[in-house]
Design goal:
Layout: H1 5-21, H2 23-46, H3 70-83, H4 103-126, E1 129-130, E2 133-134, H5 138-154, H6 185-205, H7 210-220, H8 222-226, H9 235-248, H10 251-273, H11 282-301, H12 306-329
Antiparallel strand pairs: 1-2
Helix pairs in contact: 1-2, 1-3, 1-4, 2-3, 2-7, 3-4, 3-5, 4-5, 5-11, 6-9, 6-10, 7-9, 9-10, 9-11, 10-11, 10-12
Length: 347
């Protein structure tokens, strides 16, 4: 990935756009663009006279909509606006910030949009490689680093937040949860299987779906979350399943990584989101971990037998689910927050 000054300028605009419409709505548009770019590629593939290239690198992962640019820009702008007393919560990445009528808020989004591109460029060009796979996945890592930077710059609660007095770190606060309808271990496991199974199957059947499919499925339906409906947040599940299939080569890996992603995402929410005053995207944290695990396992297990892959996959799910159960045990007997007063969830 070569550095381009015009791309940097475009990314600054993308970050401002993400701030203007809100981080999560920008992510929804990335999902729509992913679906559109895949359809565009199918048309190009069936009609050689069109000579069309995939739009993925310019659409859902381009300077206007790529999550490390637009979504991360929206997250940073919300954190800044909350710090300045212009916005009720730095965790609210759903509300379009154009409504504040403050150019400085949009400018912060632009700065973080450019920052997201610089991070992506650096991780792409300077990450080590194992067995042909880049170790640091650029876009996801850029999202996490950008979100953490925004919290350290604009937040007051520290990187992992400050639990209320007498409250476990692993329990939601009285004012904010990530996804109250998707936080109990049994629910997390169920949602993980429900979405990992079909995604892994589809990607295994047509690997050319790549990451566009998982993004298109799980980002587009967040439109309903923006409208106030309680929907799953699952891009760490669908994209986790995609990582398992594409990096390790079997549908079983996809199922295991999707379910493990669901568990890791909730653990990341407990660690970063429950008690923080700005958003650090739990699915992105989960995907960063899953990618590192997959790349580390690939040299040994890429060509493993189905039996070995199945055993290791079951162990991966068991370990991540076990860690989630242990964490949630610390919350037994604690009061459950009133969902009616909970802030809008970030993706």
């Amino acid at each position: 990935m070569g550095f381009e000054w015009m791309y940097l300028l475009a990314a600054i605009g993308g970050g401002m756009f993400g701030a203007a419409i809100g981080g999560v709505p920008a992510f929804v548009l990335a999902g729509v663009a992913a679906a559109g770019s895949y359809g565009y590629s199918v048309i190009a593939g069936t009609n050689p006279d069109l000579h069309l290239a995939s739009l993925s690198a310019l659409g859902p992962f381009g300077p206007l909509l790529s999550p490390n640019i637009a979504f991360a820009g929206g997250v940073a702008a919300a954190a800044y606006a909350a710090r300045r007393g212009l916005h009720p919560s730095g965790n609210d990445t759903v509300t379009p910030l154009i409504s504040l009528n403050r150019p400085d808020v949009l400018a912060v989004g632009g700065l973080f949009g450019g920052y997201g591109y610089l991070l992506q460029w650096a991780f792409t060009n300077f990450s080590p490689v194992i067995a042909g796979n880049i170790v640091v996945t650029p876009i996801v890592t850029a999202i996490v680093v950008s979100n953490m930077t925004a919290r350290l710059v604009f937040g007051r609660a520290g990187l992992t937040g400050r639990p209320e007095a007498g409250m476990s770190r692993w329990a939601p606060s009285s004012t904010h949860q990530w996804l109250p309808w998707q936080e109990r271990p049994a629910q997390v496991l169920t949602v993980g299987f429900a979405l990992a199974l079909p995604t892994a199957y589809l990607v295994a059947q047509i690997p050319a779906f790549g990451f566009d499919l998982g993004l298109a499925i799980s980002a587009t339906w967040l439109l309903f979350l923006c409208l106030g409906f309680k929907t799953p947040v699952a891009h760490h599940i669908t994209l986790g399943a995609t990582i398992g299939v594409l990096v390790l080569g079997k549908v079983g890996w996809g199922i295991a990584f999707g379910v493990a992603g669901a568990c890791i995402g909730e653990l990341a929410a407990c660690l970063f989101q429950y008690h923080g005053d700005t958003a650090i995207d739990p699915p992105s944290v989960a995907l960063l971990v899953l990618w590192l695990v997959a790349v580390s396992m690939a040299p040994v297990l890429r060509d493993a037998s189905t039996t070995v892959a199945g055993v290791v996959g079951v162990l991966l799910v068991a370990v991540t689910f076990g860690l989630l159960l242990l964490a949630k045990r610390a919350t037994i007997g604690l009061p459950i927050a009133d969902e009616s007063g909970i802030e809008p969830a970030s993706a």
